[in-house]
Design brief:
The complex is a heterodimer of chains A (418) and B (156).
Chain A: H1 17-22, H2 27-33, H3 37-47, H4 59-64, E1 74-79, H5 88-95, H6 97-110, E2 115-120, H7 125-140, E3 156-161, H8 171-178, E4 202-206, H9 207-219, H10 221-225, E5 235-242, E6 248-253, E7 256-257, H11 258-265, E8 275-279, E9 288-289, E10 296-297, H12 299-304, E11 313-318, H13 323-337, H14 343-360, H15 368-379, H16 387-401, H17 403-411
Parallel strand pairs in A: 1-2, 1-4, 2-3, 5-11
Antiparallel strand pairs in A: 5-6, 7-10, 8-9, 8-11
Helix pairs in contact in A: 2-6, 2-9, 3-6, 6-9, 13-14, 13-16, 14-15, 14-16, 15-16
Chain B: H1 6-16, H2 26-37, H3 42-52, H4 56-63, E1 77-82, H5 85-89, H6 92-103, E2 116-121, E3 133-135, E4 138-140, H7 145-153
Parallel strand pairs in B: 1-2
Antiparallel strand pairs in B: 1-3, 3-4
């Protein structure tokens, strides 16, 4: 079993710097400081590492987009984990905060950044405190602050707690939130690498992405690129939840068949039931039916199968599930989390929710399925940020694959009052 | 009139030192004000605005954007049930019904003794340990009615 992020993760007191160092922690710093910053960027590019937050953008390429010679620059670690189904960053923050700090230091050195924030969702108060203690320890050891390990490199690092808003996981909304505003997304371009926090060049990376960097610096990009498939390199933390016997976060080699993740890692479907549907990458990606369960878990294969890898949240539904009820729940979430800035998302999520509620309550009408599809079409690529597109994914995919669930509810609907 | 406590003042100093622009301290200061008073009062919004160079209306617009800030009094213990898909697949509705019946209040309400408030919460990012709740931002996972009983009984 190949483990990069979860290697030794259950070692007692790994949150303490002594234990982390005994496991080889912070060894990557000296290796990095012996190289030029640009060499680290090239290493990350060569590793093939892609962003683990949801979009899967090549990490090294993102770093190389930073506006040249504009300072100060900022790093924001995105620990605003809130994509339904996703709980991997929580485990990293809770159990191995120093891995995240080490990754952030390496990124900051590579990108010539001297101020770094870790934006942690407000509900993670307990883990924000763990991170604060870990950062204080790293300062004491001289891994943060001025002239780190005699390298001449300076870095200040802080945590910043959110206050409950899914949209702040979107990178530009995160930056607006960090600046003290309502967490509404910004127009792109300019991308954060050009104009980000305080209108300065900024790198925003997911917690898991940054936690991979120490491995790449320690072992070389080839070692990372040797794991996984041709285009999806390395390992991925997959949060398995729903109707499985052993839900949990599992580190898998990209390309592992989904059936293997469900059966071998997560102990199979509960109560000996059959698989009905699964969502492979968090609630924002299309759900798939059971006959796609042999799809390899990697970026390209999931796109070919009609979905996406997203944040790596595999939500499993057995054959007792009423898919409409679950789609209603997810749509209720997007309605709640829509920031209200743009009309297609604000109105579209609300309208879809109302229709789904009627169908679920058996007062729906058959033509509402076409109406739902039409609303989705009017939202698709017409919203200000990806939240709108995320909201239509579960609706469209469920109508495509589980139309029978809708039709059953519609057929049993009460006759309309004349 | 809202006045930050002495303890809060020393924390504010450290918070402001984190950022090149003081307005970034907006969320942390709202959090501090809520910790002190139980919710964010209009007077606290005015005070925070003065500190950070923002109008009271701006502070209110930020405060009301985020779900963790309360603008009305809540119970001593705020119980938040995650209701999103992974918890829903694992019976969060029954658990929430159980708890509202036990405490004799509806979701969104506070018990007469001001001890408990029950709220629905969107995904709390602990999906593989569903169903999940938080009490004052502390996690309780893999819940059953018995476990809810134990947690509530331990809250004085």
């Amino acid at each position: 079993m190949t483990q990069i992020l979860f290697k030794g993760i259950d070692t007692p007191n790994l949150t303490s710097i002594d234990v982390y160092e005994k496991q080889g922690g912070y060894a990557a710093l000296a290796k990095a400081f012996a190289k030029e910053p640009d060499e680290i960027v090239e290493m990350v590019k060569a590793s093939g590492l892609r962003g683990r937050g949801g979009a899967g953008f090549p990490c090294g390429l993102k770093w190389s987009f930073l506006a040249k010679d504009v300072f100060p620059r900022y790093l924001c670690c995105n620990s605003d984990e809130s994509e339904p189904g996703t709980c991997k960053d929580r485990e990293l923050l809770m159990k191995t905060p120093h891995l995240c700090i080490e990754g952030m230091i390496l990124c900051a050195y590579a990108c010539r950044i001297e101020t770094a924030y870790n934006y942690i969702r407000g509900e993670f108060e307990e883990y924000g405190e763990i991170m604060d203690r870990a950062i204080a320890e790293a300062y004491e050891r001289g891994y943060l602050g001025k002239n780190i390990m005699g390298s001449g490199f300076n870095l200040e690092m802080y945590t910043h707690m959110g206050a409950g808003a899914y949209i702040c996981g979107e990178e530009s909304a995160l930056l607006t939130s960090l600046e003290g505003g309502r967490g509404e997304p910004r127009m792109k371009p300019p991308f954060p690498a050009v104009e980000g926090l305080y209108a300065k060049p900024t790198i925003v990376n997911n917690t898991e992405t940054l936690c991979v960097i120490p491995f790449i610096v320690n072992n070389g990009p080839e070692a990372y690129a040797a794991i996984g498939t041709e285009k999806s390199k390395g390992t991925k933390l997959v949060s398995v939840s729903g109707h499985v016997n052993k839900p949990g976060n599992y580190e898998i080699v990209l390309g592992t068949p989904i059936s293997e993740i469900i059966d071998k890692f997560a102990g199979g479907i509960r109560n000996g039931n059959k698989l009905k549907a699964f969502i492979p990458g968090g609630s924002s990606v299309p759900m798939l039916p059971a006959d796609k369960v042999d799809t390899p878990y990697d970026y390209e294969s999931l796109v070919a199968a009609g979905s996406m890898l997203g944040s790596g949240a595999l939500i499993v539904m057995d054959d007792t599930t009423n898919v409409v009820a679950e789609v209603l729940r997810i749509t209720s979430f997007y309605m709640h989390e829509s920031c209200g800035k743009c009309t297609p998302c604000r109105e579209g999520t609300r309208w879809m929710h109302q229709i789904l509620l009627e169908i679920q309550n058996k007062v729906g009408k058959p033509e509402q399925l076409d109406l739902l599809t039409d609303i989705c079409d009017n939202m698709s690529f017409k919203c200000f940020c990806p939240l709108g597109d995320a909201a239509i994914a579960p609706v469209l995919s469920s109508i495509k694959y589980f139309r029978a669930d809708y039709e059953e509810l519609l057929a049993s609907a009460k006759a309309p009052v004349a | 009139m809202f006045v930050f406590s002495e303890a809060a003042e020393s924390r504010i100093e450290k918070i402001l030192a984190k950022y090149p622009f003081k307005k970034s301290a907006m969320l942390p200061l709202l959090t501090l004000a809520q910790e002190q008073e139980g919710y964010v009062t209009p007077e606290a919004m005015i005070e925070i605005g003065k500190r950070l160079g923002a109008s009271p209306a701006y502070v209110e617009s930020v405060c009301t954007f985020y779900t963790m800030y309360f603008t009305k009094p809540v119970g001593k213990y705020v119980i938040k049930f995650c209701i999103n898909i992974s918890c829903h697949l694992n019976g969060c509705d029954n658990l929430m019904d159980y708890t509202t019946n036990k405490l004799g209040i509806q979701v969104g309400e506070t018990t007469a003794d001001k001890k408990f408030t029950i709220l629905r919460e969107e995904c709390l990012a602990a999906c593989s340990e569903a169903p999940v709740m938080q009490v004052n931002n502390k996690y309780y996972v893999a819940l059953t009615p018995e476990k809810v009983d134990q947690v509530l009984a331990a809250l004085k």
